[in-house]
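Worked example

This section walks through a single chain of length 200. The input is the sequence exactly as stored; nothing has been trimmed or padded.
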Amino acid sequence: MMKIVYPVHSGLYFNLTNRCPCACTFCIRQRNEKFYVEDSLWLDHEPSFEEVKSALLAEDLEKYSEFVFCGFGEPTEALDVLLETARFLKEKTDKPIRINTNGLGNLINKKDITPLFEGLIDAVSISLNSSDPKIYAERVRPKFGEESHSAMLDFARCAVKHVPNVTMTTVSTTITKEDEENCRKICESLGVKYRIRELI
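Given that input, the structure is written out below as tokens.
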């Protein structure tokens, strides 16, 4: 059975797609298909909103502290289902909704999608990965090429206008301390939080 929703700590996570424009050298899905779950997070097909809704209604929403769009793919690849699910959640609960993203959603959808988050998404966590475009390209390996790093920064710049809580992250041990400090400065300039997350 496909794993569309799954708990992680106190949150409920949504696995909407396995598509991703990146092939990060440190990505968990290259090493472990059962991240936080007993069954694989690889999907047989991308779930429709009705399938997501059905999986969601089988859960006790009150036991979760937040809802997170983050699975074995880039959630903005399934933007329509993401937004419809977020609207449904807002009708059912006042718990915060977060998107974990590589920040390439505007390139994927060929438009600025951040205004669509207004009033629906409470937090966005964007994978910054490096302050250096060259290192970023080597570690993230985005299909969009050189424009990806600047597009990711632009996504963050746009997101702060529509989402109350925006954080950018790097992964510990994957870049130097100097790079981490430069990332911190970038985040300060963009008016977003900076977090170093553990390598899983």
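What to look for: The helical segments are 49-57, 79-92, 105-109, 133-140, 147-159, 177-190.
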